[in-house]
Amino acid sequence: MLRVLLAASPAVLEERYRGREVFRGERVEAPLAVRVDGVGWGRRLRGFRWPRDPRVHRALARSAAVLVAEYGADLAFVTSDEASVVWLRGAPYGGRVEKLVSVSASAVAAGVSLALGRRLFMDGRVVKLYGAGDAASYLVYRARVGFNNYVSSLYHSLVGGGGRTPGLGEMLAGLRARGVDPSVPPWAGLGSCVLRLPSVRRVGGVAVERRRLVVLDTVGPCLEALGASPRAL
């Protein structure tokens, strides 16, 4: 085996295979979002509360916060088994698509796996955005998808539906008739926002402003940070 390795030419083989790497050299400029989604989490997280477990949600939010901190993202939104991380400027790795996707998915999956003691996988994709307003609209879209899925899961579990999935309004009415409010607790149906908030502390009698990462319920704080009003979207 050693003879085979020594006879091989790294330069020749690199020239042959480097150009075959899919998405190699593909770049995207900020603003952008990287969305990472759980792969087969329903099966891999058996034993956790369904359809939402606070332990899973907290682990996902903390892992997204680490990604925001380590790679200079502006904020992240977490719902269900997904996290959308937003960069408004200065994307890491020069905006190289394959690095953004692979590093983001592996970093978040590793954090959640360690926190929950389960081997979990995630996939990822890059979404091109066109300013803070577009980023806000994208997060509303993901929040709505997460809310729809949560309401649908609760409805079919508690109400039934006879094999059909009615409209969102009908499902909400059916749940409320049974005393169930999908927006309580807020994180379950409306997700959580990871962002930096200013904090002031005194150092030697001097007020020093710093920004600390916090996790807040619902997509609302993310929209406010992006300067968008939900009514304007």
Offer a concise description of the structure.
By secondary structure, this protein is α+β, with helices and mostly antiparallel strands. The protein has helices at residues 2-7, 10-18, 41-44, 54-71, 97-116, 132-158, 168-176, 186-190, 220-225, and strands at residues 32-39, 75-79, 82-87, 121-128, 192-203, 206-217.
Structure explained in plain terms:
This protein has 233 residues and is of the alpha+beta class. The model has no long low-confidence stretch (mean pLDDT 90). It has a single domain (32-232), classed as tRNA(His) guanylyltransferase (Thg1) (Alpha-Beta Plaits, 2-Layer Sandwich), CATH 3.30.70. The protein has helices at 2-7, 10-18, 41-44, 54-71, 97-116, 132-158, 168-176, 186-190, 220-225; strands at 32-39, 75-79, 82-87, 121-128, 192-203, 206-217.
What's the layout of helices and strands?
Elements: H1 2-7, H2 10-18, E1 32-39, H3 41-44, H4 54-71, E2 75-79, E3 82-87, H5 97-116, E4 121-128, H6 132-158, H7 168-176, H8 186-190, E5 192-203, E6 206-217, H9 220-225
Antiparallel strand pairs: 1-3, 1-4, 2-3, 2-5, 5-6
In total, the number of domains comes to: 1
- In percent terms, what proportion of residues is strand? 15-25%
**CATH homologous superfamily name?**
tRNA(His) guanylyltransferase (Thg1)
Show unreliable segments.
none
Distance between the termini: 62 Å
CATH topology-level fold name: Alpha-Beta Plaits
Largest sheet: 6 strands, antiparallel
Share of residues in helices = 40-55%
**E-strand count:** 6
Element order: H for helix, E for strand? HHEHHEEHEHHHEEH
Quickly count the helices.
9
